[in-house]
């Protein structure tokens, strides 16, 4: 009987076990990036920048060129790469501490320059790798090792809404927020990533895909409960949607 | 001879362009502001890229990206800005990324002032950032050398995959002198390790992190082996009237120019004094200092600092009396002052420098 392969590993992805916690969104998003790269035939043009955080080892899974970056500096590193290779696909992959806390300056100015790169922002509302401490995106009331009584706005402020903030810069081409907490969200995330890559390859400017993703280990939930938490609670602070999709004239 | 009148800072920028540098990322800070201004005008003429970054932190990481992409790339700054870059410098060293940096030193610590200083010697030669690393450190003393050493810095950095630093100061950066323009470098070395897109090869990865037991020790062993080769091959210095000298002055950068004037004045008085001027501050010319120290009665180290390079001179010198004269906080030497210190050294009126 002839077999027909209907599901396979993307060519841009290495066939190795991942170190991510079971149920974590990183693996899903890694795969979506690789699927988009394969479909656009960009593997030989792709250059990734890995952040400091759980995804620093992204090059163990991505089968294309990758650079590390110091914590928060991925957008600056991506800028340097892109200025040297304007025709390559440059992807900066960052978490919330990296992108919205220590790297906020680099994030905002890279967006404001309209740097022709794609930033994939994994928002899991905590510092996953260091043990789940408060991130700039931690929800009000959310308990973390550094907010043991829950995040209190009077001393720590409010969660920063990056996709909306990024959308406010005129030179930004595309800014969206999606999630990988359910199947519909995975499909939408894939479409957003692919669209961002296409826009970049057309030279249309800075593209930003914020993805709500669970950190079930540090949230101390099962993966199923963690995804439900995203869909029921996290989206109230971080609404899904497209915040900018137009080119400045 | 194709000589033009240039500021030291401009000569450095033109030298970079002639060395094939087509990417510059920088942030304004005095006294090196001529550099970004020069690149902003010049880069478009040669098809290069100038980006004014949002901070020195961003500059150094843009340099990291462009270096990872295989380009000749540069950033320049002055002391407080160079402090801000130290995280990136450590990453550049750890990831073996060639690039050229420049610190046009000013008075410190803190915001200090905008006058020339040499108080960043420790930071430049002993680390600055975290981890076991060195930079190749070149110390120009003229506008011509700002051009020549910058070009040399690109060659050395690419040869060894070690970042190179031009350790200049506000005087050398701001002085205007005739500069002979050097030929453009035609051929830049291949960089098969660079990120170019994995076309027809396995992916390249630029990294300084390994979580296993072996990776970071192995990377450090590679670095140390490379540093040893550089120590053996790339030590550079200049001597001035040292052959028959009974006394020596050791000075680098702009202070070496002042020291030469002082030495000429002292020679007119019959004092046989000469100069050793380290050109590479790392690797430091320990051996020549050690051998010359055997022929002299005293060594005077002059620095615009409270005494930093003098510690390296002390490592090279066994029994010869060692003296130190410093200028603090952005004050510069005069030839008369160094001449006076030479007198005191010769007459026994100067206290010997002691390890503190």
From TrEMBL, chain A:
<dbReference type="InterPro" id="IPR011766">
    <property type="entry name" value="TPP_enzyme_TPP-bd"/>
</dbReference>
<dbReference type="InterPro" id="IPR051457">
    <property type="entry name" value="2-oxoacid:Fd_oxidoreductase"/>
</dbReference>
<feature type="domain" description="Thiamine pyrophosphate enzyme TPP-binding">
    <location>
        <begin position="68"/>
        <end position="211"/>
    </location>
</feature>
<dbReference type="GO" id="GO:0044281">
    <property type="term" value="P:small molecule metabolic process"/>
</dbReference>
<dbReference type="GO" id="GO:0016625">
    <property type="term" value="F:oxidoreductase activity, acting on the aldehyde or oxo group of donors, iron-sulfur protein as acceptor"/>
</dbReference>
<keyword id="KW-0560">Oxidoreductase</keyword>
<dbReference type="GO" id="GO:0045333">
    <property type="term" value="P:cellular respiration"/>
</dbReference>
<dbReference type="Pfam" id="PF02775">
    <property type="entry name" value="TPP_enzyme_C"/>
</dbReference>
<protein>
    <submittedName>
        <fullName>2-oxoglutarate oxidoreductase</fullName>
    </submittedName>
</protein>
<dbReference type="GO" id="GO:0030976">
    <property type="term" value="F:thiamine pyrophosphate binding"/>
</dbReference>
<dbReference type="InterPro" id="IPR029061">
    <property type="entry name" value="THDP-binding"/>
</dbReference>
TrEMBL record, chain B:
<dbReference type="Pfam" id="PF01855">
    <property type="entry name" value="POR_N"/>
</dbReference>
<dbReference type="InterPro" id="IPR002880">
    <property type="entry name" value="Pyrv_Fd/Flavodoxin_OxRdtase_N"/>
</dbReference>
<dbReference type="Pfam" id="PF17147">
    <property type="entry name" value="PFOR_II"/>
</dbReference>
<dbReference type="InterPro" id="IPR009014">
    <property type="entry name" value="Transketo_C/PFOR_II"/>
</dbReference>
<dbReference type="InterPro" id="IPR033412">
    <property type="entry name" value="PFOR_II"/>
</dbReference>
<protein>
    <submittedName>
        <fullName>3-methyl-2-oxobutanoate dehydrogenase subunit VorB</fullName>
    </submittedName>
</protein>
<dbReference type="InterPro" id="IPR052368">
    <property type="entry name" value="2-oxoacid_oxidoreductase"/>
</dbReference>
<dbReference type="GO" id="GO:0016491">
    <property type="term" value="F:oxidoreductase activity"/>
</dbReference>
<keyword id="KW-0560">Oxidoreductase</keyword>
<dbReference type="InterPro" id="IPR029061">
    <property type="entry name" value="THDP-binding"/>
</dbReference>
<feature type="domain" description="Pyruvate:ferredoxin oxidoreductase core">
    <location>
        <begin position="245"/>
        <end position="334"/>
    </location>
</feature>
<feature type="domain" description="Pyruvate flavodoxin/ferredoxin oxidoreductase pyrimidine binding">
    <location>
        <begin position="14"/>
        <end position="185"/>
    </location>
</feature>
């Amino acid at each position: 009987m002839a077999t027909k392969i209907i599901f396979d590993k993307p060519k841009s992805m290495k066939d190795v076990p991942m170190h991510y916690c079971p149920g974590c969104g990183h693996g899903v998003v890694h795969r979506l990036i690789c699927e988009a790269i394969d479909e656009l035939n960009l593997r030989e043009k792709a250059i990734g920048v890995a952040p400091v955080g759980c995804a620093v080892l992204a090059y163990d899974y991505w089968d294309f060129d990758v650079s590390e970056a110091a914590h928060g500096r991925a957008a600056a590193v991506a800028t340097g790469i892109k200025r040297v290779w304007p025709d390559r696909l440059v992807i900066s992959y960052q978490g919330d501490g990296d992108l919205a806390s220590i790297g906020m300056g680099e994030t905002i100015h890279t967006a404001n320059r309209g740097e022709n790169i794609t930033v994939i922002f994994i928002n899991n509302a905590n510092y996953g790798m260091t043990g789940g401490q408060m991130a700039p995106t931690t929800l009000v009331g959310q308990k973390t090792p550094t907010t043991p009584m829950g995040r209190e706005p009077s001393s720590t402020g409010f969660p920063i809404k990056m996709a909306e903030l990024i959308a406010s810069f005129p030179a930004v081409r595309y800014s969206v927020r999606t999630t990988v907490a359910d199947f519909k969200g995975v499909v939408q995330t894939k479409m957003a990533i692919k669209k961002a890559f296409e826009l970049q390859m057309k030279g249309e400017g800075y593209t930003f895909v914020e993805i709500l993703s669970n950190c079930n280990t540090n949230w101390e939930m099962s993966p199923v409960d963690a995804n439900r938490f995203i869909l029921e609670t996290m989206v109230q602070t971080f609404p899904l949607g497209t915040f900018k999709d137009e080119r400045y004239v | 001879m194709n000589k033009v009148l240039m500021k030291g800072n401009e000569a450095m920028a033109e030298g970079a362009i002639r060395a094939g540098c087509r990417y510059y990322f920088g942030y304004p800070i005095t006294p090196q502001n001529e550099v970004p201004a020069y690149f902003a005008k010049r880069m478009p003429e040669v098809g290069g890229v100038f980006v004014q970054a949002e901070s020195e932190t961003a500059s150094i990481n843009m340099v990291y990206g462009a270096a990872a992409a295989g380009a000749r790339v540069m950033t320049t700054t002055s002391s407080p800005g160079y402090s801000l870059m130290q995280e990136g410098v450590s990453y550049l060293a750890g990831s073996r990324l060639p690039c050229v940096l420049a610190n046009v030193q000013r008075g410190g610590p803190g915001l200090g002032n905008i006058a020339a200083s040499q108080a960043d010697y420790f930071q430049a030669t002993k680390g600055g950032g975290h981890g076991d690393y060195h930079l190749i450190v070149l110390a120009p003393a003229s506008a011509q050398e700002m051009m020549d050493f910058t070009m040399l810095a690109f060659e050395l950095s690419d040869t060894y995959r070690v970042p190179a630093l031009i350790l200049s100061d506000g005087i050398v950066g701001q002085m205007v002198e005739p500069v002979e323009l050097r030929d453009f470098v035609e051929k830049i070395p291949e960089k098969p390790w660079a990120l170019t897109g994995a076309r027809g090869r396995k992916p390249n990865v630029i990294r300084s992190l390994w979580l296993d037991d072996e990776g970071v020790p192995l990377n450090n062993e590679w670095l140390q082996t490379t540093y040893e080769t550089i120590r053996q091959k790339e030590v550079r210095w200049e001597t001035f009237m040292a052959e028959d000298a009974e006394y020596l002055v050791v000075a680098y950068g702009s202070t070496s120019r002042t020291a030469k004037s002082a030495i000429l004045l002292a020679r007119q008085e019959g004092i046989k004094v000469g100069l050793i001027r380290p050109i590479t501050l790392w690797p430091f010319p320990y051996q020549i200092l050690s051998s010359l120290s055997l022929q002299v009665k005293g060594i005077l180290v002059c620095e615009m600092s409270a005494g930093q390079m003098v510690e390296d001179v002390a490592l090279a010198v066994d029994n010869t009396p060692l003296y130190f004269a410093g200028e603090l906080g952005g004050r510069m030497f005069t030839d008369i002052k160094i001449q006076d210190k030479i007198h005191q050294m010769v007459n026994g009126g100067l206290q010997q420098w002691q390890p503190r």
